[in-house]
Amino acid sequence: MLPLLPEPDTTMLLDTLNIIAVSAEATTAALIANRYRMDWFGVAVIGAVAGLGGGTLRDVLLNHHPLTWVKDPWLLLLTTVFALIGAAMAARMQKLRHLFLALDAMGLVVFTVGGCNVAYELHQSMAVCVIAGMVTGCAGGVIRDVMCNVVPLLFQQELYASVSAAVACVYLYCFETLQMPQMSAVSLAMITGFLLRGLALRYNWRMPTFSAS
């Protein structure tokens, strides 16, 4: 399977969306760090983990080097700046629950598509591409929550990992199987992700829980 060369405008779009998503995740992580009264260094670390942790784990699993933040160290500065901004504005942002959820959903969708791309360009199978997308989209939040001693959102009833899986499948099916232009595949995948996440939050869709009785 030979990867299709992405259109230049799509590459620029994905890079831009990734920067926005990294910034957004770093900002939302600051809200959790502030809730547990972490110092500024702790806030910066949590922001970096949330924004870059998923991609780092994906690259390690796929033996893809250099790691994103090693290749572009300025990303660490980016996460630090937005994490500190988020912490400074935490009192106000706590009231903006819908903004928090929108930023988190954007990070989930964008990271998932980006993770699929990395695995695809490494000539991995479609199954591995989907998993790589899910790891990129979800792992940063899991590591963030574990470090904050919180049960990760991924392991609760929220439709989170399933949304990431749906985004990955839609993107790869459109791009690889239907041979759609990458811009169109990205757009459809992102719309799917935002719709699913939004509907799940609006109508309280949840995964069944395990109960031993």
Report on this model:
This protein has helices at residues 8-35, 40-62, 68-71, 74-88, 90-93, 97-121, 126-147, 161-177, 182-202. The chain is mostly helical. The protein has one domain (8-202). The protein is globular and about 50 Å long. Residues 1-6 have low confidence and may be disordered.
Q: Report the principal-axis shape.
A: globular
Distance between the termini: 48 Å
Regions with little confidence, pLDDT below 50 for 5+ residues: 1-6
Kindly provide the radius of gyration, computed on alpha-carbon positions and rounded to a whole number of angstroms. Answer: 17 Å
User: Could you describe the largest sheet, including whether it forms a barrel?
Assistant: none
Question: What's the assembly state of these chains?
Answer: single chain
Number of domains: 1
Q: Pairing-aware structural class of the strands and helices?
A: mainly alpha
Query: Considering DSSP H and I runs of 4 or more, what fraction of the residues is helical?
Result: over 70%
Q: Roughly what is the average pLDDT, rounded to an integer?
A: 87
